[in-house]
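Would you mind writing out a protein's amino acid sequence and the numbers that encode its backbone to help me picture the idea?
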Amino acid sequence: MYTLPLWAGVLLGRAWAEDPPPDPPPTPPSDASPAPLAPLAPLEPLAPLEPLAPLESGGAAPLAPLPDAPAPAAAPQTFPGMLNPAMSFNGLFLAGAELDDGALAPPHVGEEEGAKELEGAGQTFGTGLSVQEMELQLLAAVDPFFKANVTLAIPGGEGLEVEEGYVQLTSVPRLLVTIGKFKESFGRENLTHTHALLTIDKSLIGQAVFGEEGLNDVGVGASLLLPTPWFSELTASVDAGNNEVIFGSGEALGMGTTAHWKNLVDLSPTTSLEVGLSGTTGLNAYDGRTIVGGADVTLKGGGRGRRQFNKYVWQTEYIFAAPGGSDSVDGLYSTVEYAVTRRFWVGGRFDWMGVAVPVEPVFAGTAIVVFAPTEFSALRLQYQRQFLPDDHAIDSVVGQLNFTIGAHPAHAY
């Protein structure tokens, strides 16, 4: 490659610096504006397509349908809760004092030997500590058609018995069929388990007509949702007639039949009214037939916004029983409960035996305070006074601890 000598490069650079080349003359501005573009010619519309001529009789044959794809093999199916049913355990513990005409009553602990129960219109708990009841519940779906519910009870902390054990057919629209041992649909209180009651004990008329265990027997029942603008349900059942208070004939055809008509309407977005009629009949141990009728009214409501926990429930039920061969009995109870806060409830119950039947009436008044930290626990303090015939009175103050562990299902509305 040829390279200039160093001294030649220096001389050329010095000459360029002393006499630089002149700038190129500026380009004169042009006053002529560019010519506008010629408009495009409009497009001509396309000619409509001619319809296809129909195939002649000798045309091509139609395509054969594709063969059906083989159905996939059915995978083994499992159902929720088949192997792991929902289990829960509930316990009720009592501590209290009872006065019989001012005298302290003896201890009454469940069904232990030597326990003494005062003669009164309703259940009494005596003085001291006791176990009211324990329950173990198992609930699961059997398959897409049935669900099962089993409740094992330990009343008084001793002995194990099946309180409820039934299977329900749930796959038929508007119809629910129950088979097994269950609390029959009579009124409101009979369907309620002990730990779900407002008060610690049941009403006086409920105990007098159905006993402490209520109308709970082996049978078959069906509930039909009627096609009405409001919620209307008709329930009918046939049981074995084993209730010792109103039935218990011991005959092969001494079964009992029960019917209940429930109607529920919304009075406002936060208030509902339920009205029900009930009836049951069957042969009794007095060689006669027992007829029991009842009516119930329940009003529920609550606040909104900040007062959404200020709920109230008013429930009243009247029952009349005419056992053929024995004396008739009737009565009513009325309960009121109000949630002061989310965890604090107050309430009361009024009992009246002998409303229409010509017997000496019996009254009772109950006041209760409930503190429920969660839906799994509650502390209750109850005072009750029973006004019995011959100016006899029973006073009781009972505290109750109510707790539940496990997946306990929600109770009926």
